[in-house]
Give the backbone structure.
Amino acid sequence: MERSITQATSGDGDPGQTAKRPAARPEAGRQGRIDRDEQLSVGPYAWGFALIGLCLVVYILCNPNRTNIYMHFVLQAQAWLDGRTAIPTPAYQDALPILDSTGAKTGYSIIPFPPLPALVLLPFVAVWHLAVNEQLLAAIFAAVDVGIAYWMLGYLPVRHEIRWLTALFLGLGTGLWYAAAIGSTWFWAHVVAIGCLLAAVGCALSADPEAAEPRSLADEFAAARRPKWSGGWRSAATVVVLGVLGELLFVLSGAGTAASTVAAVGVLVAIAAAALAMAVSGGRGVLVPLIVVVAIVGGIPAGLVLGSQSSLALAVVDVLGLAVVVCLVVLARVRTGAVNDALAALWTALGRPESRQLAAGMLFGLACTARLTIVFGFPFLILVGGGGSWLRRGILAGAGALVPLVTLLVVTYATSGHLFNPAYDYLYHLELGYTFLNYHADWSIEDLRYVPQNLMIMLFNMPLFDPQTLPYRTDPLCQLGQARGLFDISCPIATPDPVATSLILTSPAYLLAALAWVPARMRKLDRVTVGATIAVAAIAFVNLMHFSQGWVQFGYRFSNDFAPFAILLVALGASRLGRFWPVLVAFVAASIAINAWGTVWGVMLGW
């Protein structure tokens, strides 16, 4: 079996890691290909920016009239700036009305969706308010997601062509293209979640350069049986404290305690998680990514909200920011060596595998605050990342993920009075009336009995061939004798089914993921393959249990939840084709062509 050539710069996200990766021995007659690969990798960031630019142009051109009535997250961001947690009740679905003491509607509602997509919109809404073009931002952020994917794939031992083809497949051959083209509430959430999850996976891979190298199953099992625990009684005591605080959080919320008290307990949970990370890693440097992420994700939005509420608060924030800048400038001029030493220490702290694993956990947790089902992909971070053993990897990543996840609980409680959003249950009973979607009133919102019918939708649902009417319309198609066309809305050959279209049909390159398991024939496996497979299967299974599989979509949009893990398998699968790796080109080309057809039709139909 021929493995792909390990690139000298394949870890360009962290050049220091590349020396740790064993280099593949070039065979006779392949030296020219190695030289060419090295030339291609001279400017890796140029390739990443080229992919971003290409995808951005495609995303914008495929839907130049980027308008959509569904603005849940824009309304939520504006509500925060106005000092409210509830949004004005929109004239469309997916909002739970708030009732007054008499049972009458107040004109305000809460949305069922996690808050990160609205938080990302907050700076833009602070400037343009309700005029923010969420659909244009979806195109921009989705293109950036493709660049992050290219960076992430650089940590795999695959040739450069496979790397950029797989990133291109994510951008134009999967459900990400349709999400970027439409950009409405549900698709914007996918775009935000994918970016965070790709960054989390990239951090974990950068901290674990040998994770993608196949090893003997016996060696892996032996390593799993010898977990390395560190921190002694301190880390054990911190785990106990975390458990107590977590239980207290649920008890207080169940008793209807004030949101400020629940938030205070949430802060204590975050502090305990940081203490656990320090105890396990053996140093305070591991907290650097935690501080950076909290400052960006928490500090900037807090400053925007405070500034919108009070001119005095805005002035205080501006003065503090100016003071920090002045202090840094003075220190840089007076004590240049001290500043350089501090920056070097900061960079060293960020470069530690344990720090990257904590950062991976935080980014993973952020992804979950955009799409909840991503949380079931956590086993990947137990198998892949810095820490030295599956136990330490899991604890560090879990400590990082706890911070955004507990924040999600606190925000949900402050918004709805419950730790888990009641709007989901309300909407479930509301949508049970859509009998044509085969929902069952006697089943729960997440039910194993939904899996068989939803699996058929995911894998085998086909477009509508020779349709007599368009979806949602009753006017007949095709005048007598009129020939059907590929993009003829008056007489089409086929149109997408609004329920979904087979994932195998729309993204056939995913079929190459199975080849990532080729080393198993020699009783060898790598932790990336195992972890990514578990993550894909777990996330997909939970999504299949959900009563709804999406609506008015091309492809299967829930696949975006596991796409960052799935493309790891695609890249590794293509690399294990050896010299037949160019098969990936055909699969990616077919995926792009099919998604182009479906996305154009989705735009034409006004979805």
About this structure: Confidence is low (pLDDT under 50) at residues 1-42. Residues 229-422 form one domain.
